[in-house]
Amino acid sequence: MVLPIIAYGNPVLREVAKDITPDYPQLKALIANMYDTMNYANGVGLAAPQIGLPIRLFVVDTAPFADDDDLTEDERNFLKNFKKTFINAKITEETGKNWNFNEGCLSIPGIREDVSRPEQITITFLDEDFNPQTLTLNGLAARVVQHEYDHIEGILFTDKLSTFKKQIIKNKLISISKGKVKVDYRMKFYQK
Fold this sequence. Notes:
5-stranded antiparallel β-sheet, 4 helices
């Protein structure tokens, strides 16, 4: 089932999300709905706060990046098959030099900006069957995971922009928070 995506301005996007346990209600259905929602909105990642749930859960599917001509064949193959569910994730290490990439967010439609992030991360998490996992990722896969991880920490990609860039997009962010944005997917706007 495709769920509405929470728009910029909703306080749930600023909460540090809470861990969940295996008895979280209807978890398998929730995860399936998150993948459906992400795919419908043409995203590569979706965190639970983006659907209104302040829990440490996010999903990623980097297959859309696999068509990038600047990638090696190995990188393309990895991205094509990198589809994962992350529960109670914790980034334990960020290494390598920072690099810029133009990011966007389903909760902040119509805004894309270059964001600097470390090129490699190590992350521990539970998969959807609550099996402990540790992954070391680099490049685009690391970036997508870092972006979604930020969501469960209450951080948005716009927080990482310079003061100057934040000033430039300020009116667009206000418009999004007021529901004055047109998208091809369902959104839910915050009513104070």
